[in-house]
Amino acid sequence: MRYISTRGEAPALGFEDVLLTGLATDGGLYVPESLPHFSLEEIRSWRGLPYSELAFKVMYPFVEDAIPADDFRKMLDETYSGFAHQSVAPLVQLDSNEWVMELFRGPTLAFKDFALQLLGRLLDYVLEKRKQHVVIMGATSGDTGSAAIEGCRRCEHVDIFILHPYQRVSEVQRRQMTTVQGDNIHNIAVKGNFDDCQRMVKESFGDQSFLGGKTQLAAVNSINWARIMAQIVYYFQASLALGGPDRSMAFSVPTGNFGDIFAGYLAKKMGLPISQLVIATNRNDILHRFMSGNRYEQQQLEHTLSPSMDIMVSSNFERLLFDLHGRDGAAVKDLLENAAKGPVSIEDYRWKAARKLFDSDAVDDKTTCDTIREIYEQNEYLLDPHTAIGVRAARNCRRDATVPMITLGTAHPAKFPDAIVESGLSVKPQLPPHMADLFEREERYTVLENDLAEVQGFLSKHWKNA
Ligand SMILES: *Cc1c(COP(=O)(O)O)cnc(C)c1O
Question: How many independent structural domains does the chain possess?
Answer without folding.
Answer: 1
